[in-house]
Every structure is written in C-alpha cells, then in structure tokens.
Amino acid sequence: MNPNSRPTLLDVTLRDGGYVNGHSWATHEAQAIVRAVGGSGVPYVEVGYLRDTAVPRRPSASCPPDYLDALAALTDRPRLAVMVRPGEVSVSRVADLPGHDVSMVRVLVSGGSVAKAEPYVAAARAAGLTVAMNLTRVSERTETEIAQATRACADVGAQLVYLADSNGSLDPETVTAQVGAAVAATTTPIGFHPHDNLGMAFINAKASITAGATAIDASIAGIGKGGGNLRMEVIVAHLIVRHGAGLRLDPIAADQTTLTAQLRMLAEGNTKAVLTGLLDLNLDGAAEFYDMVAANGYDATILTMSGR
C-alpha cells in the first residue's frame, strides 16, 4: 500500500461511543451526530447495534425501525451501517435493513470463528448490503491466526474485514505485522479499528494504512469503550493536511452533541484503560482486574499480572 493512499473512514460515535453513556443517545442527538459526520464528508456512520430486544430511550442499543427511519430521512447524510453480534438478533431482521436505507452490516467475529457469523453474512449479501466482518481482540491472536480468520471471512462472503484492537493493546510494529498478514492472506480489503488505551490510536492507524488497510474507524472526540477510539477530528485533519483529502473539519469540530460524553470520559479517568491496554485485558472480562483494583489499589500485583 502506498503510504500516501487515503483510507475510507467510518464513524463509530453512536455505537462505540454509546458505551460511555449507556447508549442513551436521544434520536435528535443521533441525528445531530449523523449530520456532523455527513457534513465532514466521512462516507459511513455506524448508528448502533442491531438487536431484537429494544430498550426504551436507548435506540442506538438496538436500532429499532423508527430510529433507522429518522436517520435515513436526513439529507446529505453519510451511508448508514449497523453492527450485528451473532445471537443477539434474528437473521431475518437483516433482510429488512434496505427498507430503512441501511447500506452496510458489520458482523462481529469473536475468537476467529466465523460459523456463527456466516448466516448473517449470507442474509446481508442476499439483501444487497455491503458486508464487513470485524475480527475482535486481535491483540490476543497470532499473525497466522489472523491470516486464517481473514481468509475464512473472505470465503463466506465478507467484502471488508476489520482487525479490531478491542483491548487497546497494540503498538505500531504489531499493527504493521498483523495488517500485513491479513492483506497477504486475501484480496478482500482490510480495515482497522483502533482503541486509544495507550495513546497510540493515531500512530497505529497510520501504521495500518502503510501496511495496506483501506478503511479506518474513528469517533468524534475519540469517545468509546475503554480508552476510547481514534479521534475523528485528528484523522480527518491529517488526511486533509497530509493527503489533500476532500473532507471538512468544521462540522465535527463545531458539534456539541458529544460534550456530555466527553466530560464523562474525563471524569472517569484513564488509569484503568491504560493498565488494561498494557496488560492486554479484554474489557468485557476484566471483572477480576477491577475487583483487585477496588480491594488493593494499583499495587505491584496489579501491575505485574499477565493479563492473559
């Protein structure tokens, strides 16, 4: 990949940033975020998880039809994407998405196994949707395992395969090796989903692009799970200044919708996020770690645990 190439950006503010506020975005807030993303020229916005169980006042947690329709009705918006975690939504729901003007389905692949994801991929392809598959927790995988999982995703019909640094543990050298292994394994485009536990989301994103990634995830102000995501305003500004991209920074920089979520991230601090990144801990399974911190503080036991 030419290091001067420009990746396709996908905004994850509503979905990943929803972990900060319990996915409590009101529909009018979601509309404001989608407008800001569209105004910046970012081509895709992920608007939440697709789930069968709807939660009142938390539309981005399940993407009910009226929520999708409210976002689809916006003019000059980017293309809409939803995230699917296999087992949380019936496969039949996928076929309804084009009717709500959703363009992309992103299917989570945990542990490198595509078996549970395959029916959703098939349904999305049959509905004419663009299908991405997201390999989670790649910091816990070897390059060989990543290459095998990438090939498996391509074989079942993925049109884009993302490597997700779910634990926020990767460094540029590892990103280069992992993305390189994925690129070498298939002709299917590769994307990268950075987290910023160790303050490396931007440099890791740059390393992924140099290694061949052609799609990058980011969120407004970096709000997101754990240590947060790559800041959309940083990658947009970088692509404008260094690569001449036809994007606009003002709509994102001027948007005030995420300020409360930003303050919540600031108030909660980042010590735990930094340590879980250093220890390569999966945040969904870090209960023991948090219990130890609550009981003992950040003592030597915490700082020297393997995290595996």
List the helices and strands and how they pair.
Layout: E1 8-11, H1 27-40, E2 44-49, H2 65-72, E3 79-84, H3 92-95, E4 102-109, H4 118-126, E5 130-135, H5 143-155, E6 160-164, H6 172-185, E7 190-193, H7 201-211, E8 215-218, H8 232-243, H9 250-254, H10 259-268, H11 271-278, H12 287-296, H13 300-304
Parallel strand pairs: 1-2, 1-8, 2-3, 3-4, 4-5, 5-6, 6-7, 7-8
Give a quick set of tags describing it:
alpha/beta; eight-stranded parallel beta barrel; 13 helices; 8 strands; globular
Count of runs of 4 or more consecutive helical residues: 13
Q: Name the structural class.
A: alpha/beta
Order of helices and strands: EHEHEHEHEHEHEHEHHHHHH
Give me the side-by-side strand order of the main sheet: 1-2-3-4-5-6-7-8
User: Any idea what the radius of gyration is?
Assistant: 18 Å
Question: Are there runs of 5+ residues with pLDDT below 50, and where?
Answer: none
